[in-house]
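Thread title: Can someone regenerate the structure for this chain?

I was given the following input by a collaborator and told the matching C-alpha cells would be attached. They weren't. Posting the sequence so someone can regenerate them.
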Amino acid sequence: MTRVVVLGEFRADRLLPPLLHAGAEVVLLGRATGIAAFLSSSLGADVTCGELPAVLREQDVLRLLAHWRADVAVPGMGCPGQEQLLPLYARAASRRRTAGRRMAVHAEGFAELASDKVAFHRIAEERGWPVPRGVVCGAAPAVRAAARELGLPVMVKEARSEFHAERHYVRDDGALDGVCAEVSFPVLVQEALAGEEYGVEFLSGGSVTVAWPVASLGRLDGECAPGRRVRVAPAPLPARLRTELAATVGDMAEAFRPHGPWQMDFAVTDAGRLVVIELNGRLGGVSNMSWAATGADPHAAHARSVLAAPADGLSGSLPAGPPPPARIALELPVPSGTPLPPAPEGTGLMLFPGSPVNPGPLVGGYCRPVLTIPEGRQEAALAWLRQLAPGTLLNSPRDAADQLARGARGLRAADALTPLHTLMRGGS
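Best answer:
Regenerated them for you:
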C-alpha cells in the first residue's frame, strides 16, 4: 500500500478522496486545529493527522517524511503561512529522490518564480514575457525614483508575500512615504494597470501541461482583492491574446518545468495589451470555478496525477485534461452568514463555507458560492440575481449581470477556447 503524506491542509477535503479511493494510506500534516474531526465527518473516512511545525527547515521536512514513512509527499499549498514553503519543499525533493522516494512538487527554479515577485519580474524581462513596466528597488530613495519614472499610481510589492498581502496601491507621494517606511526590501514597483483581470489554472507533469478555462476576475482596482469581486468562467479572449498567452505559458513550462498545479493571474489592459501579473505555484480560489464550469475538480486531478507518476517523479503522463466547459460558473461574494434563495430551476448553487482546510471565509468575513448555469438558463439566472435582497452581494447586481453576460459569451465560444488548451498540452 502506498503511503502518501500531505504537507499542509489546504482543500484536503478535495485532494484526499481520490487518494483514498485508490487505496493509498494517507497522512495529513497541518497547522489548524480540528483537522481530524473535520475530515472524518466530511470524508467519512479515518485519516491519520499530525502537526506541521510553524518553522520548517529542509532537514525538518526530510525528518518528518522519514518519521511518517512517506512513499510519496504532496505539498498542499494554500493556507496562510504555507505558500512560501514551496522553494523549501523543492530543495527537500531533490534530496529525497536520491533515497528512492518522491515528492510531487515543482522544481526549485519554478518554485522561486512562483514565490518571489522580484525574481519573476527579472526572469520575465529576460525571456520577453509580457509583464507590467516595473523597477526592482532595494531602498526607499529608489522607490521614489521608480514612482517618478513610472508615474503615479503604482503598485509596490514585497518580493515574498502571500494571498495579496504586502501589495500596496499607491496613489500619491504621501502614501508612498508611508509604504516605504513599512515594507521589507527588496520590493517591485510596477505601473498600476487599468483593465480587466483574469486567472487560469494549469496542471503540469513531464512534458504535458493541461489548462482549465480562463476565468474573469473582474476589473482591476486599488483593493488588490479579486476574491471580493464577482468572477466568472469561462471568459472569452480574442484569438490574438489566446495565442500570446499560449506562447508565454509554453515557454514557462519548457524553460522551468513546473510539476503539479499552478496558476497565472494576468490582465488585459484597456489598450488591449496582455500583461502577466503573477504566478502561483498552487491552486487557489479559481479552482471552484474551474470545477463548476467543467465538472473536473483540479484538486482531484492533481491527486490522480500524483498516484500516476513513476518512481523517479520526473516525468510521466497526466490524466486527461478537463473537458470543455459545459456551464457558466458565476462566483458571488456574499457576507458570511447571508442566506441565498434556492437556485432557479435548471441551475445549481455550489457552496464553499469556511473550514479548517479552507479558512478564508472564516477570517475574511465573506464566502464565495458559485452559481452554475447551463446554456439556455441565463435569463432565469439573471432574474434570480435581480431579486436578491439589497446587501446580499459585496458587489452591485449590475457587476453580477455583466459577468453573467461575459460567461455566456465564453460558453458560446467554448470551441474557440480549445486551441488554448491544445497549445498548453503541446509545451515540452
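The longest helix spans residues 239-256.
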